[in-house]
Amino acid sequence: MEQTEKIGGVAVVGAGPAGMLAAIRAAEAGADVTVFERNPKVGRKLAISGKGRCNVTNDCAPAEVLSHVLRGEKFLYSSVFRFPPSAVKEFFEDAGVPLKTERGNRVFPVSDRAYDVVDALLRRMRETGVTLRTSARVDSVSRRDDNTFAVAAGGEEKLFRAVIVATGGVSYPLTGSTGDGHRFARENGIGVTPLLPSLVPVETAEDFSPLAGLTLKNVRLDVTAPGGKTVFSQTGEMLFAHFGVTGPLVLSASANMRDHPAGEYKMAVDLKPAVRFEELDARLTKILRDGAAKDLLNAVRGILPAALLPYVIGIAGADGRAKAGNVSAAVRGALCRAIKEFPVTPVRFRPIDEAIVTAGGVSTKELDPKTLESRAVPGLYFAGEVIDADAYTGGFNLQIAFATGSAAGKAAGAALPTK
Ligand SMILES: Cc1cc2nc3c(=O)[nH]c(=O)nc-3n(C[C@H](O)[C@H](O)[C@H](O)COP(=O)(O)OP(=O)(O)OC[C@H]3O[C@@H](n4cnc5c(N)ncnc54)[C@H](O)[C@@H]3O)c2cc1C
C-alpha cells in the first residue's frame, strides 16, 4: 500500500450530520481537516430524513432533549448542554436555512427541503477550508507507535494526528451506514454493545395490506408486556403498511418493547381516544336510529376513515349489509369495543435495515462525554449514531448527531497545533 509520510491534522470518517459538523468545528478551531465519505455525495441519510423534509432538531430545552433519550442520557448531558437545540437552530439560520417549528416542537427548514440542510453543511465545510474526499471508503483506522493514525482508503494510506469516526449506525445501509465504525472501534480495542433496531415498524398477524398507506391521526396506542404491565401509552399518528403497522406512534412504541420478543407484547389502538366508551355507545345508538333504514356500513360512514369501517365491522362480528335499525345492543357494544380496542397483534419487528435508528454501538463507558475521545486510545473520537446513544423521533436523533459532532470536532481541533 502506498504511504505518504506527511501527517495530516484531523481525519473525519463519514459525512453525515455528525461527521460534517465535527469537521466544521475542528476546522474552526484551526485544524487541518480531511473528511472521507464513501458515497459520491454527502449526507444521504440526512437527505431522506423527516420524509425528505429533515426534522433538524426539537425546539426545547436541553433537559427536555435528554428526557427523550432512550439510551445514553447521562453520557449526552455535556454535549447536549453545550450544543442545545437553540444552538443548532442558530447554526442553520446563520448558514442560510430559515427554520420553522411545527407540532411537537419539531423544527424543519421553511423550504421543507432536507437538501437545504445538507447543502448548508457542505457550504460551511467549504468556507472553513475542510478537504472533502467523496467516493472514499475508509477500510481501516490504526494507531501507530508514534501516536498517529493510519487511515486506509481506496488502496492509499494517510497519516493523521486525530481521527473522528462518524460512520452512523447500521439501519438503512443503502445510505452508507453499514457498521464500519463499529469494526474500527473493535479493531482498536474499544467495546461495542449489541446492535439492535430502535424505532422500527412492526409486522402483525392481521393482514393490513388492503389498508396500506392509510394514516390514522390522533389515535392512542397502548402496549402491554407479558404479565400485564403497560409499557407504552401515547396518542399520535400511525400508518398501516403491507406488513403491519408503522408511523411515529408505532416507531416510538417499538423502542419500549425491548425486554421480550415482539410477539409477546399486546397492542391495542383506541381509534377514538377523546370519546369515552359510553359516549361512543350513545353516539352510535343515535346514528343507528337515525339511519335505521340504511345498511349498517352506510349508516356509520363518517365515524371512521371509509377503508377502516369494513374491518371494524368485521372485528365486531357484525354484517355491514344488515339494516342499521336491526343492530342489537350486543353488536353495538362489540362495535364500540372494536373502535376503542382495535386489535393489532405484533408478530415481529421489521429488520434492523428498516429501523430509523440503531440501538447499541460504541460503548459510552469507553468515551469521555465532554470530548467524545476514547479513554483507551487518545486521539480517536466517535460522534453520532455510531455511539450507543439514541432517542425517540421528533428531531432528537439529529440533535444527538449535531451535539456529539460539535463536541468531538471542537475537542479534536483544539488538541492539535493550528495549521
Ligand atoms: C428514514 C429515516 C428518517 C429519519 N428522520 C429523522 C429526522 O427527521 N430527525 C431526526 O432527528 N432523525 C432522523 N433520522 C435519524 C437520523 O437521520 C440519524 O440518526 C442520523 O443521520 C445519524 O447521523 P450520523 O452522522 O451519525 O450517521 P449517518 O447519517 O448515517 O452518516 C454516516 C456517514 O458515514 C458514511 N460512512 C460509513 N462508513 C464509511 C466508511 N467506511 N468510509 C467513509 N464513509 C463512511 C456514510 O456513507 C454516511 O454518509 C432518520 C433516519 C432514517 C433512516
What attributes does this structure have?
seven-stranded mixed sheet; binds flavin-adenine dinucleotide; alpha+beta; FAD/NAD(P)-binding domain; 419 residues
Summarize it.
By secondary structure, the chain is of the alpha+beta class.
Topology:
Blueprint (H helix, E strand, L loop, with lengths): L1 E12 L3 H12 L4 E4 L7 H5 L8 E2 L3 H6 L1 E3 L1 H10 L2 H10 L4 E4 L3 E4 L4 H14 L3 E3 L4 E6 L5 E5 L2 E10 L14 H8 L8 E3 L3 E3 L10 E10 L5 E12 L2 E3 L1 H7 L11 E5 L6 H14 L5 H4 L9 H7 L13 H12 L1 E3 L1 E4 L7 E3 L20 E3 L7 E2 L4 H19 L5
Parallel strand pairs: 1-2, 1-10, 2-7, 10-20
Antiparallel strand pairs: 3-6, 4-21, 5-6, 8-9, 9-10, 11-19, 12-15, 12-18, 13-14, 13-16, 14-15, 16-17
Helix pairs in contact: 1-6, 1-13, 4-13, 9-12
The structure holds flavin-adenine dinucleotide.
CATH topology of the largest domain: FAD/NAD(P)-binding domain
Helix content: 25-40%
What's the quaternary structure here? single chain
Q: How many distinct beta strands?
A: 21
Summarize the biggest pleated sheet: 7 strands, mixed
Number of helices: 13
On the 0 to 100 scale, the average pLDDT is 95
CATH 4th-level superfamily of the largest domain: FAD/NAD(P)-binding domain
Shape: elongated
CATH architecture of the largest domain: 3-Layer(bba) Sandwich
Number of structurally distinct domains: 2
Percentage beta strand: 15-25%
Distance between the termini: 27 Å
Q: Which CATH class of the largest domain is shown?
A: Alpha Beta
* Rounded radius of gyration (Å): 25 Å
Which regions have little confidence, pLDDT < 50, spanning 5+ residues? none
The bound ligands are:
flavin-adenine dinucleotide
Structural class category: alpha+beta
